[in-house]
Amino acid sequence: MADPSSYRPQPGQIPDSPGVYRFRDEHRRVIYVGKAKSLRQRLANYFQDVAGLHPRTATMVTTAASVEWTVVSTEVEALQLEYSWIKEYDPRFNVKYRDDKSYPSLAVTLNEEYPRVQVMRGPKKKGVRYFGPYAHAWAIRETVDLMLRVFPVRTCSAGVFKRSAQIGRPCLLGYIGKCSAPCVGRVTPEEHRELAEDFCDFMAGRTGAYLSRLEKEMHIAAEDMEYEKAARLRDDIGALRRAMEKNAVVLADATDADLIAVAEDELEAAVQIFHVRGGRVRGQRGWVTDKVEAVDTAGLVEHALQQLYGEEKGESVPKEVLVPALPEDTPALAQWLAERRGSQVSLRIPQRGDKKALMETVHRNAQQSLALHKTKRASDLTTRSRALEEIAEALELDGAPLRIECFDISHLQGDDVVASMVVFEDGLARKSEYRRFQVKSFEGQDDVRSMHEVVSRRFRRYLVEKSKTGEWDPQDGEDGPPEDDGKPKRFAYPPQLVVVDGGQPQVAAAKRALDELGIDDVAVCGLAKRLEEVWLPGEDDPVVLPRTSEGLYLLQRVRDEAHRFAIQYQRSKRGKRLKAGPLDEVPGLGESRKQALVKHFGSVKKLRQATIDQICEVPGIGRKTAETVAAALAGAVPAGPAVNTATGEIIEDENPAPAGASSERGTEQ
Fold this sequence. Notes:
InterPro entries: GIY-YIG_endonuc, GIY-YIG_endonuc_sf, GIY-YIG_UvrC_Cho, Hlx-hairpin-Hlx_DNA-bd_motif, RuvA_2-like, UVR_dom, UVR_dom_sf, UvrABC_protein_C. Residues 16-95 form the GIY-YIG domain. The UvrABC repair system catalyzes the recognition and processing of DNA lesions. UvrC both incises the 5' and 3' sides of the lesion. The N-terminal half is responsible for the 3' incision and the C-terminal half is responsible for the 5' incision. Helices cover 41% and strands 17% of the residues. The chain has 19 helices and 21 strands. β18 and β19 form a beta hairpin. By secondary structure, it is α+β, with helices and mostly antiparallel strands. The protein is globular and about 95 Å long. The strands form 5 sheets. Strands 13, 14, 15, 16, 17, 18 and 19 form a 7-stranded mixed beta sheet that branches.
């Protein structure tokens, strides 16, 4: 624990202007980022008597070892810089909302020649129009199923679309009228895109004009005695009305707004957001966070706004944002939102009427979300704490191992030898800290030697990071530490416990690696698969934990996760090696141009037969590159013909599999 007075700046050094400040710990990691209208006044608050500070603030300032700041010209710039640094440094004492689920959205891929309607999760992609997010994927599919009757837009995958185009026959949706079947040319690309754009307009809330147009067409068809057409239009109108009914009108004035509500207690907070478009609730999402800093409701709202709109632009930012409490810098936040939208944004608290009533509904959802989260978390916390205590007791550790790292080796009969390192903090997997290694110092199969190499490399990197504080000097010939930028380092955090997948030999190798580096404050154990025995360095007999032990269950989860991660990496390496073809040997030829060449000619076989002038016809391929490709393919040995082993017949294949990609044998280890 550091004394804040040891790094407190002199009052005259801190400018009295807007800016963003960063607290760093003794390893120069950024642990907190904040902004202020006046840096001098705000930073002075942190250097009061520690006993008078909020407990979380006191923990932060005693963990920190230095503070620095950056002056900006306006509060809006400070807001943007604070958001950027929180995203870049991931400081441990800042409030960071985490989604309690991955919410699905309805997406229209307008970036494709034939736009597709589908359910999408995860980060947004350029050129794709999104609606939602929705609470359930089935709600999207029900809405789409109703609307495809009127807007028969493609919903099939690329593989199904390509297959239907090849055989000249559409899929089932094309036969029952729920797809316009652009795959077989029933509509032109332009007509299909117009259908997709009408679908987007309807989903965006512009429903009245479209329904009026359909009703007018229905009446005209009836007057002209085209009764079948009139009946179809009548059914289309009914389908659209049913789709609209699934999103009840909550605001009568066709408002576009986001409503944000917060439910909180001393330790945690839950945020719920309702997305209202055209007066209807079009989507819902929620977050939960630990209150790792001293923050009130207004501060939680500010963090939520930053996370919700930090990556959004245009119409994704609504005209109106309704919140339960206004942040301290409301004018700056409103200006920041307006810049992201491109027009004025109203940020306010609803006072009366339908908007206040809907805000109360959103708040009830936030309360239920927090209660559900705490019910789940209570059980999880109790179980994880008991597991860590059991491990500490069984291995005779000084304290609970809050950070556990596990190493595993994987290979296929000595080829593609790789290793994995997984990290569990407080009994939970921390996937951002996972690391992968390639074993290159020797050839062949030697798990013990591989384990020694990997553990040595991991902790040598830790010592290099540690050298920045002057606590350790790298040996001669060791690479110097990279220039510090305050970001979370790859190997900066030491574990309290290292677990290896294996028995006595692997444990001894890991312990020897730590001893050679002079590290004596990290415990080591191994978990053998056969009897799930825990092995300690230098012990002839294993530690046997009860089968019902939560500690053993946690060690098994850590070991199995390391095994999964190692096998995943080993398979990907082997797959890349087996898929390697003659084009991979062409210098300067990237993946995009390789795909363009194969797509243009249809196969490597036809590309090999092409002239240099024909290769130059491919977009992005110049004459020099074409000559290099032709020379490389001329020197490559073509793969032998495939043979039907039952008949002895030679199989003609325009896309032969790469050599060595036949059956695989062996067991992954």
